[in-house]
Design a protein that fits this description.
The structure holds 3 protein chains of 3 kinds. Chain A is mainly α. Chain A is built from 15 helices and 6 strands. Chain B is α/β, with parallel strands linked by helices. Chain B has a domain of about 90 residues: 2-Layer Sandwich (Beta Polymerase, domain 2), CATH 3.30.460.80. Chain B is about 20% helix and about 30% strand. Chain C has a 6-stranded parallel beta sheet with strand order 4-3-5-6-7-8. Classes of the chains: A mainly alpha, B alpha/beta, C alpha/beta. Chains in contact: A-B, A-C, B-C. The interface between B and C is small, with 9 and 11 residues.
């Protein structure tokens, strides 16, 4: 005799303790297994791309802080690089070194938020407190340099607005020394934790071909065996002059993504030390005319934000406002693979899988 | 790269309206909208191209027509291709690439949401970012809306 | 002085023991203001600063405040982030699901008045368009210290309301408290 049953439909969000922002998931369940998942986004949509068309190029830089608000400097860098390519603007060498230094500090801050929230999702709330304690140290450094804790707006077309403050290098090196010890603490807390491993190993496996076909980038792709890091593949600023490794793992599960991000933080420390050692003196910004009209054309820029490939595309018709600004957000593309990842997964693993993608709804919805 | 470009031009001939090699590993093609899907499939499957990673797809409005932009990357050769094509504003229809590259699925939905471009063959073409009952396509250059007075409802388009 | 007169001034400690006597209203006021449970309502960037305020350095737990995911157990809703037209009905419904007495803190420029998105067609210009707001904490995002000041001012308001209730006076008018970026209070 056949038992007729309907899949149960469960709504997760938009207000939910662990949806990492305002994300709604409509799940169809068969008992404990997820049969289908439909993500609903757009709860934070502002129409930024359209708003940017009404403003001169450089007035749009503060908006980009609010896209991926956990890594605001990467967004600033991406839009400034795009405008620089449109207008053919050169960036002085010292400014490039400063940009790389700030990007790597930002990467550490962003991965710390991932660690904290990922631990909280799995129930390890202590990780949240540890991660934010270290993050406060990074934010202190960035606040001393840029003046803000979250929305820095500290990259300009042609460089950075101002030089580093006095004694900044020593403070950063002190932080690097302390942070290396703290990372060993995180390893003792999470990486060697049997419960953590059993909740993350073998869960949410993303095969390499699927990751490529969906356009996944960043730690999601690198955990699935794709050696795609824009800092190595298409180096920008001074990334071709510093030595660092890019962690690439083959398993593609939640555990691999966690390990990739942990290792990336260690590599960021290496980059920071080299940048501080090699930074030359010089100007920090190329001055632009008051009214900036790049020649007509189309340009794009791509940077390795902590979430993946962040790319800005701009269309110019020679006037002072852009015709079109398009933001290719890594979280937007990474999230589109979630329904495939959840097919056949258990409901209890949903939070771990979603947390490992590390989405920021600000850049998904724009 | 040069060999690959010559092979593509030989295959598609007149349909490639314009092309430039911007850097040693980036080339941009402007193609006619009729061969949009064919060119994308060729670029994915041809052994000299193997563009397996869809980076970006978007649309912009010049006032006269809609232009599409598709950026692809190859993880095998590390080269980039950008495809452009133009479609009419009055009847914005083009073949969907969602079954070729699953990564452009959501990009095409967003372009339908913002510009009203119909991607033929898309498995699930409905609004993604704006509320489902939104009227009009906000990113078009001729979109005009007035506040509706109700804070829970957005501005309504003026016809 | 009798016990009743002394109670008017506050707590009465019974000599020799470990017993305190207080009026019910005073105890309720103290409990309500010192144990405000907030609804996890972080929408965007301000949510990160709210999380940082609740985390190790600017500990919110010492004020008795921690986050509950369900509106049925929350006293205060901190709206942190911009409110879009798609999200607004959910905010309204969540506010209605919170039991009385309930308070709303609008954190950040976006929740207070729409923030930098003045010409966005999908952003509601302030959450006070559809829920009553008690405290506006300006900033983009506001510093954790400002958010804590907003919470302390809200605690003072709860105390004042109960004192008025206890003395039989009419409830004070719920004018919004504004915390500006420099920490000045309006």
């Amino acid at each position: 005799m056949e038992i007729l049953s309907q899949g149960m439909v469960i709504n997760v969000g938009p207000q939910h303790p662990s949806t990492h922002g305002v994300l709604r998931l409509i799940l169809t369940l068969d008992g404990e297994q997820i049969v289908a998942c439909e993500p609903v986004i757009g709860y934070l949509h502002r129409g930024l791309e359209k708003m940017m068309e009404r403003r001169p190029y450089r007035h749009n830089i503060p908006f980009t802080d609010r896209l991926d608000y956990l890594a605001a400097l990467s967004n600033n860098l991406a839009i400034c690089q795009c405008i620089e390519r449109l207008g053919g603007v050169e960036v002085p060498e010292r400014a490039q070194y400063i940009r790389v230094l700030l990007m790597e500090l930002q990467r550490i801050a962003s991965h710390l938020v991932f660690l904290g929230t990922f631990g909280t999702d799995l129930g390890a709330t202590t990780m949240f407190l540890y991660a934010f304690r270290e993050r406060e140290m990074v934010l202190d450094l960035l606040e001393e340099c840029t003046g803000a804790r979250l929305t820095y707006n500290w990259v300009r077309v042609g460089g950075v607005p101002d030089d580093l403050p006095e004694g900044f290098g020593e403070k950063v090196l002190d932080f690097v020394k302390v942070f290396r010890q703290r990372m060993d603490e995180y390893d003792r807390l999470l990486t060697r934790n049997r419960i953590f491993r059993s909740r993350t190993q073998g869960i949410g496996v993303l095969p390499k071909e699927m990751a490529l076909a969906y356009g996944c980038s960043g730690p999601m792709a690198r955990a699935s065996g794709i050696a795609y890091d824009i800092r190595k593949v298409a180096p920008y600023e001074v990334y071709d002059r510093v030595e660092f490794d890019v962690p690439v793992l083959e398993d593609g599960d939640v555990w691999a993504r966690y390990l990739v991000r942990m290792e990336e933080m260690r590599q960021s420390l290496r980059i920071i030390e080299q940048v501080l050692r090699d930074m030359p003196d010089g100007a920090v910004q190329t001055k632009l005319p008051k009214v900036f009209k790049p020649p007509a054309g189309i340009a794009y820029s791509r940077v390795e934000s902590p979430r993946g490939e962040l790319s800005f595309m701009m269309v110019s018709d020679g006037s002072s406002n852009p015709v079109r600004v398009h933001i290719r957000a890594p979280s937007f593309v990474n999230l589109s693979v979630l329904p495939r990842l959840l097919e056949g997964a258990k409901v209890a693993d949903l939070v771990a899988i979603l947390g490992s993608i590390d989405v920021v709804l600000g850049e998904i919805d724009r | 790269m040069n060999e690959a470009i010559q092979e593509l031009l030989g295959r598609f001939g007149e349909a490639v309206q314009e092309w430039t090699q911007v850097t040693p590993n980036e080339v941009r093609f402007t193609v006619s909208s009729v061969v949009w899907r064919e060119v994308a499939q060729y670029l994915r499957d041809a052994p000299l191209w193997q563009m397996d990673y869809p980076a970006d797809l978007t649309v912009w409005d010049t006032g006269n027509e809609f232009w599409l932009y598709l950026r692809l990357w190859s993880s095998v050769y590390n080269h980039n291709v950008i495809l452009f094509t133009a479609i009419s504003r009055e009847e914005p229809r083009i073949a969907s690439l969602a079954t070729l590259y699953p990564g452009v699925d959501w990009h095409e939905r967003e372009m339908y949401d913002m510009y009203g471009v119909i991607f033929e063959g898309h498995p699930n073409l409905k609004r993604i970012l704006l509320p489902d009952d939104w009227e009009g396509f906000p990113f078009r250059k001729d979109y005009v809306a007035v506040p509706s007075g109700d804070p829970l409802r957005g501005p309504q388009p003026v016809d | 002085m009798g016990v009743k007169e002394r109670l008017e001034k506050g707590l009465v400690k019974v000599p020799g023991g470990t017993i305190l006597i207080a009026k019910m209203a005073d105890l309720m006021a103290w409990a309500r203001k010192s144990s405000m449970w907030s609804l996890t309502f972080g929408l965007s960037c301000c949510a990160i600063e709210m999380m940082a305020t609740a985390a190790s350095r600017y500990d919110l737990d010492r004020f008795g405040m921690f986050f509950r995911a369900t509106p049925r157990q929350a006293d205060v809703m901190i709206v942190a982030g911009w409110v879009s037209v798609k999200m607004a009905p959910f905010i309204k419904r969540l506010y209605e699901q919170m039991p009385e007495p309930k308070y709303v803190i609008a954190m950040g420029g976006c929740a207070s008045a729409g923030g930098p998105y003045r010409d966005s067609i999908t952003i509601v210009k302030g959450v006070d368009q559809f829920v009553p707001v008690d405290v506006y904490v300006y900033g983009c995002p506001p510093r954790p210290e400002n958010l804590i000041l907003g919470i302390l001012k809200l605690q003072e308001r709860i105390q004042r309301e109960h004192e008025a209730e206890r003395n039989g006076l009419p409830k004070p008018v719920r004018e919004p408290i504004i915390i500006t970026e420099t920490g000045a209070t309006g």
